[in-house]
């Protein structure tokens, strides 16, 4: 029986083993730590490994001396590991870095054992050091490679995995996890058959894997896969054999990318291409696809069927060359403007040459396809042959023209109600029956709203019956309409029928005719039958009134014609009276007061006769006017003194001038006469004194209702009112106030031409005059003068009367007058003023004198003369002598100097009869004028 080995023998064997390990280089040092005494003994190798002086080996060291060589980052961990080993005893192992003699750190592993006594206290702690620096480097490279591999696998898109030869999963990325729906710790080591919910899908995948591993060849294929949540997707998979170092296939690696969206896009693209192909085949349009980079164009078959060109591909230039020469430049410019200007759509109509040389009208449309930065890539379009459409439109237009002629000839309007689209078609004639302008769009609401309330129920019931598939009645009704725009009530008779498609009414079409006149005639006939006697009396009264109005109109016309006929001769006669009397009074001076008084009486009578003629001309609107842009505020303000003197002290004058009154266009002198005439009339209506107000204002009559209330057409006017607080006028006087020769004054106190002159001037100035009066409340006369756009820089200035003695100049004056008396007076008057004078009785003699006397400065000519009138003479004279000054004189111009009753601004005229003072001032003004 053998005995157990003694402890000493064990220590010897351990010592032997250590020596052998040291000799082999596996152990680089040993230590023994007497824990109870805290003495540490190391060998030479360990001292060298920790960078200690070899002389310290086998001496008693402290732990801190050895630990001082440990890397600072590892000291705390080493201290914790030693403390834990001493506490629990038993085996100890820990890795850390130490600094060697060369100053470099290297990895070592300390392996030892802590011996405990019976009380569990550490008494001894021997151990060895092993150099693991190379192993750690290899492990670090391995870990780095594994980390890189894991990062690559995780970062790879789609699914990345590896399997062994039996199909068990060795590794998978996040995509693999999402596909399987389980964490890696569950699916690693298992096959697709164990993991996938779809057995057929699992079998297909494993069969593919086995084929790749058996063939040793890489394959790329599309797979349809199902996710755990029910989603289905398409994957593009690449599978390759996994080989070991000897090249033996030990498994499989694979990647898969989700191509579901790409597959869908491809499907949509194929669908679009198929639709495009079918559309190109089905349409009658010539479809073209133009590649802009090289001008290549692809056409569908319609290029041949429509235009006869047996081509499928052309160039853009070929297309351009086949456009009509008159259209080519325009089309080329338009399409390039869209392409180069960043546009997307283009369309144009032009003529395209067929294969037989004829030209077809076409409508061409195209869309530009652009790249990522907006560059034009392609243009796709369709060319529509308009030949058939144009022919049909021409035929339709002809048919519609015939229908229009027929309805217009019958004074009818047609109508078409589209019940499917809820649309209404009315021509202008039908719209007029509902008081709607021709250009206004209409809907069914206009029809419903336009029916008179008393007729709406029966009318709508008749329409419903016509549109009812069961009844299909004839729409035949008479109803009243209330004009949408004018409010006028009209009678309409309408007939129509419904058009049906199966059991549905799609349209109701018919005609309408206005029967207002017939209805009124029927009503009048019925009324006449019921009240024949009263109607006869009323008709007789109405006829009498019309006849009176006609006679009044004829009387007014006769007055105008009479005035125009006698004005020239009468004024010529007055000129031979007033002028000589004026000369006679000047020559006599104050030598014979009685004779002077007689002369003044004669001049006053002749002057009143001249004013009578002038008023007749004003009433008949035959007086020549010289209108200018006029500020009525300035004019009224300038008349204040004249009005005050004319009214007398018993009448208080008030002028109310509105701010910023508009400009008007009128003859300032005539307007002053009108206002003065109205003031004098008001004075006569205020025998006991009172108040007269002259007021200005802007007046805008904007609506038909305003125009009806004011009895003045719509527009913008400058309003002048002259109002008194006298006794007023009864209606019968107001009705005749503007009649010529009508007066309420006693015989000898008035001619009755005052208000008729006002009326004639205002109407000749395109204005309106209204009288508002009632007994006991005074009278207001309102003048509405049209507004003239623009402003007046300054009002007309009234020059102070020139009190200097009458005198002329030394310029030579040519007098042309066919009336001997007037001609003689003119010669003597001008001579009296100091002017040298030549005279002629007509145009021929005047032109001869102009040729003989180039120093003639002024042509003073009558207007109305036989053969050649004064205006024609002046035109011919000015052709020969452009610097010649011209002054016309006339008793009645007969439009020779006027345009629409208005004198040319460049014309200077003095009316007959005239005084010596009038002649002196007018001649001087004309000669002083600078052109």
TrEMBL record:
<keyword id="KW-0808">Transferase</keyword>
<dbReference type="InterPro" id="IPR003594">
    <property type="entry name" value="HATPase_dom"/>
</dbReference>
<dbReference type="Pfam" id="PF08448">
    <property type="entry name" value="PAS_4"/>
</dbReference>
<dbReference type="InterPro" id="IPR013655">
    <property type="entry name" value="PAS_fold_3"/>
</dbReference>
<feature type="domain" description="PAC">
    <location>
        <begin position="92"/>
        <end position="144"/>
    </location>
</feature>
<dbReference type="InterPro" id="IPR001789">
    <property type="entry name" value="Sig_transdc_resp-reg_receiver"/>
</dbReference>
<feature type="modified residue" description="4-aspartylphosphate">
    <location>
        <position position="862"/>
    </location>
</feature>
<dbReference type="InterPro" id="IPR052162">
    <property type="entry name" value="Sensor_kinase/Photoreceptor"/>
</dbReference>
<feature type="domain" description="PAS">
    <location>
        <begin position="272"/>
        <end position="342"/>
    </location>
</feature>
<dbReference type="Pfam" id="PF00512">
    <property type="entry name" value="HisKA"/>
</dbReference>
<keyword id="KW-0418">Kinase</keyword>
<dbReference type="Pfam" id="PF02518">
    <property type="entry name" value="HATPase_c"/>
</dbReference>
<feature type="domain" description="PAS">
    <location>
        <begin position="145"/>
        <end position="216"/>
    </location>
</feature>
<dbReference type="InterPro" id="IPR003661">
    <property type="entry name" value="HisK_dim/P_dom"/>
</dbReference>
<feature type="domain" description="PAC">
    <location>
        <begin position="475"/>
        <end position="527"/>
    </location>
</feature>
<dbReference type="InterPro" id="IPR000014">
    <property type="entry name" value="PAS"/>
</dbReference>
<feature type="domain" description="Histidine kinase">
    <location>
        <begin position="565"/>
        <end position="789"/>
    </location>
</feature>
<dbReference type="Pfam" id="PF08447">
    <property type="entry name" value="PAS_3"/>
</dbReference>
<feature type="domain" description="Response regulatory">
    <location>
        <begin position="812"/>
        <end position="927"/>
    </location>
</feature>
<dbReference type="InterPro" id="IPR036890">
    <property type="entry name" value="HATPase_C_sf"/>
</dbReference>
<protein>
    <recommendedName>
        <fullName>histidine kinase</fullName>
        <ecNumber>2.7.13.3</ecNumber>
    </recommendedName>
</protein>
<dbReference type="InterPro" id="IPR005467">
    <property type="entry name" value="His_kinase_dom"/>
</dbReference>
<dbReference type="InterPro" id="IPR036097">
    <property type="entry name" value="HisK_dim/P_sf"/>
</dbReference>
<dbReference type="InterPro" id="IPR001610">
    <property type="entry name" value="PAC"/>
</dbReference>
<feature type="domain" description="PAC">
    <location>
        <begin position="219"/>
        <end position="271"/>
    </location>
</feature>
<dbReference type="InterPro" id="IPR004358">
    <property type="entry name" value="Sig_transdc_His_kin-like_C"/>
</dbReference>
<dbReference type="InterPro" id="IPR011006">
    <property type="entry name" value="CheY-like_superfamily"/>
</dbReference>
<dbReference type="InterPro" id="IPR013656">
    <property type="entry name" value="PAS_4"/>
</dbReference>
<dbReference type="InterPro" id="IPR035965">
    <property type="entry name" value="PAS-like_dom_sf"/>
</dbReference>
<dbReference type="Pfam" id="PF00072">
    <property type="entry name" value="Response_reg"/>
</dbReference>
<dbReference type="InterPro" id="IPR000700">
    <property type="entry name" value="PAS-assoc_C"/>
</dbReference>
<feature type="domain" description="PAC">
    <location>
        <begin position="346"/>
        <end position="398"/>
    </location>
</feature>
<keyword id="KW-0597">Phosphoprotein</keyword>
